[in-house]
Write a structure and sequence with these properties.
The structure holds two protein chains of two kinds. Helices cover 68% and strands 0% of the residues of chain A. By secondary structure, chain A is an all-alpha fold. The model of chain A has no long low-confidence stretch (mean pLDDT 81). By secondary structure, chain B is mostly helical. Classes of the chains: A mainly alpha, B mainly alpha.
């Protein structure tokens, strides 16, 4: 990169940064006309969970979360659509460190337990499906590096079920609430909390599965397909 | 009735995305065709409901804005829902016969197709800034996955490039959302619109709006941010290219337009409006010129998209600081342009796919002699071209006529030159393809005949875009249906 390009880029970036800083400054000084946090705490009673973040994610703005999970599933699908299945058995991808093995035996149960705790904690304190799913995925990545057989990761029915279970549960709940006579995603009042916990459990599994699928699906198919029409 | 229609509209694409993930390509095709039928009926039903009873807000989860997310179901939104149903129906049906069932990865076309449809519907109905962001992400990731399905290294490169551009655009949009949220404390577009009108000035939120429009312009491939579009749309499988050009780029434009119409008058500026308009004008002229210079058929069509997207951005100057009647004219013109371009461009890409399938090459010169073997597809291509050029009675003509009136009524006569020159240049690149196909070549001809249904689908789309001019009156009437604010 030439010096001129660098200088130009530097000037552009400092300009953008200065503009943003100025905007943030003016906004921070002005009073905010609507206070969503107040609204959330006023309605928390009806939300079914005690933690405001979980209430926003899985009740007030559950439609956003539904679509976000769809985004994760899409990422997983795009990943496995390009994957080479043989790589799962590739011994080159495994480590052979006896210390790691020994540690892993200690780690796995604790990490699983921790994931379960995070999931449960989400209803009244920081935690929830995204955090629990990440911990679960990390456990599985360690297991895979340690050579624990995980046949379900091969692109088959099991992998797809895992990818979509959370999303499907969420969607079925959404539809059931709509057919019940209310709007899409409006949980019946008496069973709000069990429904949220059910959705969160499914989501934890699916989030872990998406992350794991993306991890194992990394190498691409070496078989070349020519561009449409054959010519380059 | 309406609750069922809404539930069906939101649920079907998402459910079919999950269903079609499991079976192999052929069963996925059957399932998809059933789902297409259901979704089409629901979309048409919703359109009729809104045409009769007017628009409404749909509070998801029973929580009203600003605490919850509301969907805004108005005339414009349902028109686009129906447009999406028509184009997606055509592209999905075409893909079922066009993609080879033997290639393993093609089975993933179906789930990605359905998720894309869900995302598009989400964007048309979205009335919440963050929800629109999630919809955009859904669409972008599906599109990237669909481009990568072509399977070769070039496609992967184009897909990654597309992903990076789309992510950058999304992040810029999100940054703008954060600034706007910081200023107003709300994410509901209608709520912010009401606050903005309260006569104070909001310079910080103005920066937010600017960044959002910049990010959306990148995602819509507005000149000079169009670099990612031709490789991605050119290399993807033809039904995918058709979906991307006809619908996906329109989603980010739609958000930019809704933001501009709601907040532009207060938060925007004359300079910003004119600058966006100039970028659009440059896109029309340079995009058409580049389309004329391409040596590959699908690149011609892809650059033509860059040019046609340029017209859309004339909305910004034509709706800033002008009387309401002009705003109305410009809005109608742009909406018609979106519809006619979506139909025409889908027809063009699908027809181009047939031509490529037939001659076995994607180069323009290879089309020599194809006029005798595939007159039907070639004719669809040309009919779609008629709409792009803006000749009567096509929808493109009506759209440009409305834009012309809007530019004259607003006193911004300089956009006339763009409208006229753009039409001429698009004629140039369409006729270049036609010319190549009528050249007689020596030697043995070797053509493959695609199945009839593949030829019929682009023809139907092209005819629809051609006849849009005749039915533009009722379409426009539903689009501009009065909408009870705050309902």
């Amino acid at each position: 990169m030439g010096r001129l390009t660098l200088v130009t880029a530097g000037m552009v970036f400092s300009g953008v940064f200065a503009g943003l800083a100025w905007a943030v400054w003016t906004i921070a000084e002005a009073p905010v006309p609507v206070s969503l946090p107040t609204l959330v705490s006023e309605n928390l009673q009806a939300a079914g969970v005690e933690h405001p973040v979980t209430a926003v994610l899985l009740n007030f703005r559950s439609y956003d979360t539904l679509l976000e999970i769809a985004v994760l599933v899409i990422a997983g699908i795009a990943g496995i659509s390009m994957s080479r299945t043989r790589s799962l058995e590739d011994p080159g991808l495994r480590t052979s460190d006896s210390l790691l093995y020994a540690l892993e035996r200690w780690f796995f149960p604790v990490m699983m337990l921790f994931a379960g705790y995070l999931l449960w904690a989400g209803s009244d304190r920081p935690g929830g499906a995204f955090q629990a799913g990440s911990v679960l995925a990390a456990t599985a990545v360690l297991m895979r590096l340690g050579g624990v057989p995980m046949d379900f990761l091969r692109p088959g029915v099991m992998l797809r079920l895992g990818l979509t279970v959370g999303f499907s549960v969420f969607l079925v709940v959404a539809l059931a609430s709509a057919l019940d006579g209310d709007v899409f995603l409006q949980y019946p009042e008496v069973i709000t909390k069990p429904l949220i916990v059910l959705i969160e459990t499914g989501l934890t599994l699916s989030i872990a599965m998406v992350l794991l699928a993306l991890f194992v699906a990394a190498p691409i198919d070496p078989a070349e397909e020519l561009e449409e029409g054959g010519a380059e | 009735m309406t609750p069922w229609l809404m539930a069906g509209l939101l649920f079907t694409p998402l459910a079919w995305a999950v269903l079609t993930l499991f079976p192999a390509f052929r069963l996925g095709r059957v399932l998809t065709r059933l789902g297409i039928l259901a979704q089409f009926l629901v979309a048409a039903g919703l359109w009729m409901t809104v045409a009769q009873d007017g628009g409404f807000y749909y509070p998801l989860g029973g929580w009203k804005a600003p605490l919850g997310i509301e969907l805004r179901v108005d005339g414009l939104a349902v028109t686009f829902v129906v447009l999406t149903a028509v184009v997606a129906c055509a592209c999905g049906w075409h893909a079922g016969d066009y993609l080879s069932p033997e290639t393993g990865r093609h089975r993933y076309f179906w789930p990605l197709f359905w998720f894309l449809w869900a995302g598009l519907n989400g964007v048309w109905l979205g009335a919440d800034l963050f929800n629109l962001y999630v919809g955009l992400e859904l669409i972008s990731l599906c599109s990237v996955g669909l481009v990568a399905l072509a399977g070769n290294v070039g496609a992967l490169r184009a897909a990654i490039r597309y992903l990076l551009a789309a992510l950058l655009g999304s992040l810029a949009y999100l940054l703008g959302v954060a600034l706007i949220y910081g200023q107003f404390g709300s994410l509901s577009l209608a709520g912010i619109q009401a606050l903005v009108a309260s006569a104070e000035s909001f310079p910080g939120a103005g920066v937010g709006l600017f960044i959002m429009i910049l990010g959306l312009a990148l995602k819509t491939a507005l000149f000079p941010l169009h670099g990612w579009l031709p490789p991605a749309h050119g290399i993807a499988k033809s039904p995918v290219s058709a979906l991307l050009s006809a619908l996906v780029v329109k989603a980010s434009f739609y958000i930019a337009a809704r933001l501009w119409l709601a907040l532009g008058e207060e938060l925007g500026s004359f300079v910003l409006a004119q600058a966006v308009g100039v970028a659009g004008a440059l896109a029309v002229i340079l995009g058409s010129w580049l389309a004329f210079c391409q040596s590959r058929l699908k690149q011609v069509v892809a650059y033509s998209s860059v040019a046609q997207i340029g017209y859309l951005f004339l909305l910004f100057p034509l709706t800033f600081g002008v009387p309401d009647s002009v705003v109305q004219l410009a809005q109608q013109g742009i909406a018609l342009q979106v519809i006619s371009h979506a139909l025409a461009k889908a027809a063009m890409f699908l027809a181009a796919g047939n031509l490529i399938l037939s001659v076995g090459s994607n180069r323009v010169e290879a089309l020599a002699g194809v006029s005798r073997f595939l007159p039907f597809s070639l004719f669809s291509f040309a009919l779609a071209g008629v709409s792009l050029m803006g000749l009567p009675p096509s929808g493109g003509f009506t759209a440009k006529w409305l834009l012309l009136q809007a530019s004259l009524a607003s006193g911004q006569w300089w956009w006339l030159a763009v409208l006229l020159l753009g039409g001429l240049l698009s004629a140039a690149y369409v006729f270049r393809i036609y010319r190549a196909s009528f050249v007689e070549s020596r030697g043995q001809d070797q053509f493959y005949h695609p199945p009839r249904v593949l030829e019929a689908i682009p023809m139907m789309l092209a005819l629809m875009s051609l006849c849009l001019g005749f039915v533009s009156e009722p379409v426009l009437a539903v689009m501009s249906l009065p909408f009870e604010e705050g309902g």
